[in-house]
Design brief:
By secondary structure, the protein is an alpha/beta fold. Helix 2 links the parallel strand 3 and strand 4. The longest helix has 20 residues.
């Protein structure tokens, strides 16, 4: 038999999952620590729960991770999600542009070698557009030949990480970048 909390949330959300839009909801009661089936959502105003339930809502930072190899994306997605980020995946540069146009992420992590548009071209397009220029870009690539780091910096990327890169390192860099952006906003300066 399903716990009342789960059935209430399942009715409220359809199947227990919200689309990943940037807010994480966690509901709890005495015998349920958390409802991990909830993904993130935007526009969650209220979920009607019995009085003994508590609904905690927190804003999640959104990260787009782009790599043409699904196993490389998977290596980094789980640690980012566990660190509290909402993560969108892209398999090529065209998908990155589409995701960024549809919803403005807080950070973009790019591989350089991707189909449709390579990472450098995506970086140039994002930094060259007034609407997306303030989005921090981290390049995570196995291309470490001389001159690559300089090309990445010229394209406008904020950070360069060479593969193999420990997932914890990427999480730390993403956290640092999002905290830096928050500090700029709290000082009254707009990064846009």
């Amino acid at each position: 038999m399903e716990a009342p909390l789960f059935s209430t949330l399942r009715r409220a959300t359809g199947n227990g999952h919200f689309p990943a839009w940037g807010i994480c909801a966690i509901a709890s009661e005495p015998h349920v620590n958390s409802f991990r089936g909830l993904r993130s959502c935007r526009g969650l105003d209220q979920v009607l729960l019995p009085r003994k339930h508590v609904l905690i809502v927190r804003i999640m930072k959104r990260v787009v991770i782009a790599d043409d190899l699904a196993d490389q994306r998977a290596l980094y997605v789980t640690p980012l999600v566990c660190a509290g980020f909402a993560v969108d995946e892209a398999a090529d540069g065209g998908q990155v542009i589409d995701i960024v146009a549809a919803q403005r992420p807080d950070v973009v992590v790019l591989d350089l070698a991707m189909p449709v548009l390579d990472g450098l071209e995506v970086c140039r397009r994002l930094t060259g557009n007034d609407r997306t220029a303030a989005i921090p870009i981290i390049v995570l690539t196995g291309h470490t030949l001389p001159g690559v780091r300089e090309a990445v910096e010229r394209a406008g990327a904020l950070a360069f990480l060479a593969k193999p890169c420990a997932p914890e390192t990427l999480v730390a860099v993403v956290q640092q970048v999002t905290e830096s952006a928050r500090a700029v906003l709290h000082q009254g300066q707009s990064p846009c």
